[in-house]
Specification:
The protein is of the alpha/beta class. It has 13 helices and 22 strands. The strands form five sheets. Strands 1, 2, 3, 4, 5, 6 and 17 form a seven-stranded mixed β-sheet that branches. A five-stranded parallel β-sheet has the order 8-15-9-10-11. The protein has a five-stranded antiparallel β-sheet with strand order 18-19-22-21-20, sandwiched between helices. It binds flavin-adenine dinucleotide and nicotinamide-adenine-dinucleotide.
């Protein structure tokens, strides 16, 4: 088989890979993208961000219709869950978006290869079909590895394809679990735990640490835990899970120093690990680090000439938009010599209700680094729009440098926090001060006014509190 030559071959079509492919094509490169599953879009579009958000939206509407509409004077009788329709809708959202990536590839003349890509030498990749036979041989000056991640396992807890599963299973349970035990109070545990709680499951979250959402601002995480408990979620903190086994139709979950828990389903959500399965790293002399990640320099170059890596397969936050930014910076550098990601301005959002969003540094990080800061807080209960929505829990917290007033971190727990954080990310990217935000006109009545008020609070001149 003769090798087909491209300027750039990208392995993986997740948000890192497909966005890099489109940007590289815009910059005039002849680009190929190899994806081993039939649908494009990666974890994010197929089994991650998008289906989870579709279910979060649907389950929230179900729950709100049952519990909150009456307060608005809307009486609805006989509210019932139609889970098959809810799951089908989620699948349709996924199908529409994954097909959309295919159309973007066509529009941008990105060549798509379906199969498992493996590096076989410098500048050489083979693509194998589902039967293992080679579909294509590719030659390229540049190879970008964007093969993403997969669920981390836990000793003693084996995925059994039914009762003990990962996020992928929890996106498609055929029935609402009676009792769902979630291992890990991180992003996945809280989002998918919320989905099934709203649909009627009893949800118990077991977390190894003494807090939820490690890495997020601890004041907001504590408040969020209280709100989730009010919704009916149970948290057992300081629980190191040591095993789970299926006994007839039940699962028995064991943790150190505690009574075993019985449930009908377990969602294991203790993180994700880089995916470098059968990638041929040896063929170019590459080794992963102790956590299975591909080491790269500041410009995403690996130690092998012409081989780069981006997204979940390298270090840093496992977030779709982080993978996208890296993909763009990586190929811009290949094509133009320049490309950069500002890691200080990458937001993180947990799409629970209320949402939790964060960008920049937390108070704990600033304290640890010995950076003096001022803090401005504004509670949504004093915001007119939040009142009108009937969604008043949470707050905006802005941390600014004590001397320069430069915004160092913004943390929001509240309605649409995930959308509100965009303003804060732009402010940090532009090096804004709290006063810059405070003096910018925010329309009334909007949730965004809570951000402005928190910025005013940094300077001690909040108006509505
Ligand atoms: P991936 O999206 O994992 O894509 C890698 C692709 O490479 C896959 O399609 C895989 O099939 C393919 N591949 C792997 N090996 C090969 C090979 N050898 N040859 C060919 N193809 C290969 N992040 C957010 O920012 N927001 C969210 O709301 C969010 N929600 C999430 C919800 C869940 C349930 C999960 C699991 C994750 C979520 N994430 C979210 C994380 C997000 O999905 C990842 O950070 C993101 O998908 C990483 O992008 P990537 O391009 O690096 O890799
Ligand atoms: P996570 O890292 O967010 O949380 C894992 C949790 O499991 C941690 O709190 C950890 O302390 C706990 N844990 C680890 N071992 C344990 C044990 N033995 N017993 C009990 N608890 C244990 O991981 P995740 O929730 O699996 O999500 C994986 C990644 O996917 C996240 O890091 C995130 O980057 C990404 N993701 C993002 C979003 C989003 O952006 N909204 C949504 C879902 C997933």
């Amino acid at each position: 088989m003769d090798a087909v030559t491209h300027d750039l071959v990208i392995l993986g079509s997740g948000p890192g890979g497909y966005v890099a492919a489109i940007r590289a094509a815009q910059l005039g490169l002849n680009v190929a993208c190899v994806e081993e599953v039939p649908a494009l879009g990666g974890t994010c579009l197929r089994i991650g961000c998008i289906p989870s958000k579709a279910l979060l939206e649907s389950s929230e509407r179900f729950h709100e219709t049952k519990t909150a509409l009456a307060a608005h004077g809307v009486k609805v009788a006989g509210v019932e869950l139609d889970l098959p329709t809810m799951l089908q809708r989620k699948d349709q959202v996924v199908t529409d978006l994954t097909r959309g990536v295919g159309m973007l590839f066509k529009k941008n003349k990105v060549t798509r290869y379906e199969g498992h890509g493996r590096i076989v030498g410098p500048g050489r990749v083979v693509v194998a079909g589902a039967d293992g036979a080679n579909v294509a041989e590719l030659a390229a000056k540049h190879i970008v590895i964007a093969t993403g991640s997969k669920p981390a396992g836990l000793k003693g807890v084996e995925f059994d394809g039914d009762r003990i599963g990962s996020s992928t299973d929890a996106l498609a349970y055929a029935d609402v679990p009676k009792h769902l035990v979630v291992i890990g109070a991180g992003y996945i545990g809280l989002e998918l735990g919320s989905v099934w709680l709203r649909l009627g499951a009893k949800v118990t979250v077991l977390e190894y640490l003494d807090r939820i959402l490690p890495g997020m601002d601890s004041e907001l995480a504590t408040e969020a835990k209280r709100l989730f408990e009010r919704q009916g979620m149970t948290f057992l903190l300081g629980r190191r899970v040591t095993g789970a086994k299926v006994e007839k139709k039940e699962v028995v979950v064991e943790s150190e120093g505690a009574e075993p828990l019985r449930c009908d389903r377990v969602l294991l959500a203790v993180g994700r690990v880089p995916n470098t399965d059968d990638l041929g790293l040896d063929a170019v002399g590459l080794k992963t680090d102790e956590r299975g990640r591909i080491p790269v320099d500041d410009h995403y170059s690996t130690s092998a000439a012409g081989v780069y890596a981006i997204g979940d397969v390298i270090g840093g936050a496992m977030l779709a938009h982080k993978a996208e930014e890296e993909g763009i910076a990586c190929v811009e550098r290949i094509a133009t010599g320049y490309g950069h990601v500002n890691y200080g301005a990458i937001p993180g959002i947990v799409y629970t209700h209320p949402e939790i969003a964060s960008v920049g540094r937390t108070e704990e990080e600033l304290q640890k680094a010995g950076i003096a800061y001022r803090k401005g807080t504004f509670f949504f209960r004093a915001n007119g729009r939040a009142k009108a929505l009937g969604d008043v829990d949470g707050r905006v917290k802005i941390l600014a440098d004590e001397t320069t007033d430069r915004i160092l971190g913004v943390h929001i727990l509240g309605p649409r926090a995930g959308d509100l954080i965009a303003e804060a990310a732009v402010a940090i990217e532009f090096g804004a001060s709290a006063e810059d935000l405070a003096r910018s006109c925010h329309a009334h009545p909007t949730l965004a006014e809570a951000v402005k008020e928190a910025a005013l609070a940094v300077g001690g001149r909040v108006i509505h509190a």
